């Protein structure tokens, strides 16, 4: 047998149409499942965790059949797994690849942890500025409270 020949197997079955979220840190996989509310959808969902990754050591992957996520949902993923990758699949082919990036500003995703903030006492959508991406630090422009990743309360 030729030493160059190495048998490779797919660890997760191929997807005909849908979205693959790849390169999720293994310790963040189930948080991504939770924020996308994948346990509540009827689409076929394949979840793999602690899969071998040359770049990360181990990683998580999520495949969702016949589902394409909106920007707001992708921004939610960016808060938890900012270097994950999105692959759009059509007819078993990757038609689009995107690296998830955390925008500098966003709204309507995170609740302010300051109980006195106007966003918790009036009908208005919370907004945030990203102060630091690593480690994650957000700042509410209304009350100026800084929020770290471990304090995040997603809406």
Question: What's the helix and strand layout?
Answer:
Elements: E1 18-25, H1 29-35, E2 45-53, E3 57-65, H2 71-80, E4 85-90, E5 93-99, E6 105-107, E7 127-133, E8 136-139, E9 146-148
Task: Describe it.
There is one protein chain. The chain is mostly beta strands and 155 residues long. It is built from two helices and nine strands, in the order E-H-E-E-H-E-E-E-E-E-E. The chain has helices spanning 29-35, 71-80, and strands at 18-25, 45-53, 57-65, 85-90, 93-99, 105-107, 127-133, 136-139, 146-148. The strands form two sheets. The chain has a five-stranded antiparallel sheet, with helices on one face. A four-stranded antiparallel sheet has the order 6-7-8-9, with no helix packed on it. Strand 4 (85-90) and strand 5 (93-99) form a beta hairpin. The longest helix has 10 residues, at 71-80. The termini are far apart. 21% of the residues are buried. The model has no long low-confidence stretch (mean pLDDT 87).
One letter per element, helices H and strands E, the order comes to EHEEHEEEEEE
Rg is: 18 Å
How many extended strands? 9
Strand order of the largest sheet: 2-3-1-4-5
What are the defining features of this structure?
elongated; mainly beta; five-stranded antiparallel beta sheet; about 160 residues
């Amino acid at each position: 047998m030729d030493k160059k020949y190495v048998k490779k197997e797919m660890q997760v079955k191929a997807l005909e149409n849908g979205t693959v979220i790849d390169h999720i840190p293994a310790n963040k996989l189930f948080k991504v499942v939770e924020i996308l509310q994948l346990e509540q959808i009827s689409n076929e969902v394949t979840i793999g965790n602690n899969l071998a990754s040359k770049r990360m050591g181990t990683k998580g992957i999520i495949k969702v059949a016949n589902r394409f996520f909106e920007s707001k949902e992708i921004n939610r993923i960016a808060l938890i797994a900012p270097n994950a990758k999105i692959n759009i699949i059509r007819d078993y082919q990757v038609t689009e690849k995107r690296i998830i990036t955390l925008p500098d500003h966003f709204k309507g995703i995170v609740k302010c942890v300051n109980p006195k903030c106007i966003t918790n006492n009036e009908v208005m959508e919370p907004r945030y500025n990203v102060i630091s991406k690593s480690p994650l630090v957000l700042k509410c422009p209304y009350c100026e409270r800084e929020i770290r990743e471990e304090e995040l309360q997603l809406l």
